[in-house]
C-alpha cells in the first residue's frame, strides 16, 4: 500500500504536469464561464482537471476523488484514501494574468491529510509536505513564524474580516495583506512570510487540504474559525472558516474572537 512519501511523489509529478497546461492558457484570454455560485471557471481549469484525473487515478484507481471541477461522487465517502484537489486555486487571479494562482493537490486518509502540494507554475514555486515529514519549498525546509502577539503581526485576510462585528474582544491591530489563492495563503504562512491567515467564510476542502498540511508541518496552528481541528472527505466538504497562524498568534486571535 502506498505511503505518504509515495503519494507525495505522485502529487509532485501531477503538479508538474498541470503547470505547463495552465500556462498555455495564462494571459491568452481563456474562455470563462460563471458557475451557479457566481464564481468563475475557465477552460484551463477543465483542462488541468482532466489531466490530473487521468494521471492520479491511473496510479491510484482505488482512491476516492474530490475536485472542484468534477461533479461530486458520494462513492468517495466509502474510500479510506481520497484525492482532494483544486485544479486552479485563484481562478480570478489567473484570469487577470496575475502570477499567484496555484494547483492544490492533497491525499487524505481517514479524514486526515497525509500528503499535500501547492504549486505556483508562473513562479515555479512548489510547496510540499507529508504528515510525518517537513514542509518544503522547492525541496528546502520552511518554517512558520514564531510571532506571539497581535501587535505588529502580518495577517493574510480580506478587509471585511476586520470589521468590528466579528471581534467581541476588539479588532486586532495587524498589518493586512491578501492573495486570491487560499492554498497559497496557507503556504505563505508555512513559509513564514506572513504570521497568519484568517477566513470567516466556509472553506471548500479542495482549497484548504494541501495548504493546511504545509502550514501545520511548518509549525503553524491550523484550525477552523472556532479552534476545532480540520477533518476531510466529509459528506459536505466544507470547513467553518479557517485560522492558520503562529501558535501564539493563533491563541491571541482566538481570544479576541471569543
UniProtKB/TrEMBL annotation:
Domain of life: Bacteria
Stored CDD domains: CysQ
Keywords: Hydrolase, Magnesium, Metal-binding
A GO term, aspect molecular function: 3'(2'),5'-bisphosphate nucleotidase activity
Keyword ATP-binding: no
Record-linked InterPro entries: Inositol_monophosphatase-like (IPR000760), Inositol_monophosphatase_CS (IPR020550)
Enzyme Commission numbers on file: 3.1.3.7
Protein family (similarity comment): Belongs to the inositol monophosphatase superfamily.
Name under which the protein is recorded: 3'(2'),5'-bisphosphate nucleotidase CysQ
Protein source organism: Fuscovulum ytuae
